[in-house]
Amino acid sequence: MLKKFQEALAKRYEGQLKYNYEENIPRGIVKAGDAEKHALEVALVSTIGEYVHWEPEGAREIAANIVEDVNFHDLAKAIREF
Fold first, then answer.
1. Alpha-carbon separation of residue 3 from 8, 18, 32 (angstroms)
2. Predicted confidence (pLDDT) per residue in 46-60, tens digit
3. Sign of dihedral through CA atoms 46, 10, 1, 64?
4. Quick one: CA dihedral 60, 63, 24, 3, positive or negative?
5. Cα–Cα distance for residue pair 22/20, rounded to 1 Å
6. CB 3.0-4.6 Å disulfide test: which of 43, 53, 54, 57 passes with 12?
């Protein structure tokens, strides 16, 4: 499971990074210095979406786990209750 996730993440990252340099940076959508960070964030979100099979409940739990990991416990609770 982990290997499949890593492969999907890498593929999406490379595709988004290429798109950033070919399209987003020239159009001013992404700054050149932010291209890698942006590509990683987009790839993570997309890969997580696939991981949870684009189910809202799975996405909600992942979101709650992320905010809980940074000690935003009240928001994590609210997300889970939503």
1. 9, 23, 30
2. 999 999 999 999 999
3. negative
4. negative
5. 6
6. 43
- Give the chain's radius of gyration (CA, Å): 15
Residue pair 23/33 in contact by the 8 Å Cβ criterion? no
Contact 12, 43 (CB under 8 A): yes
* pLDDT digit string, tens, across residues 25-74: 999 999 999 999 999 999 999 999 999 999 999 999 999 999 999 999 99
- Token digits for 74? 């009240």
Do the beta carbons of residue 79 and residue 66 sit within 8 Å?
no
Q: Where are the beta strands (DSSP E) in the chain?
A: none
Instruction: Specify the residue for token string 């070919």.
Output: 22
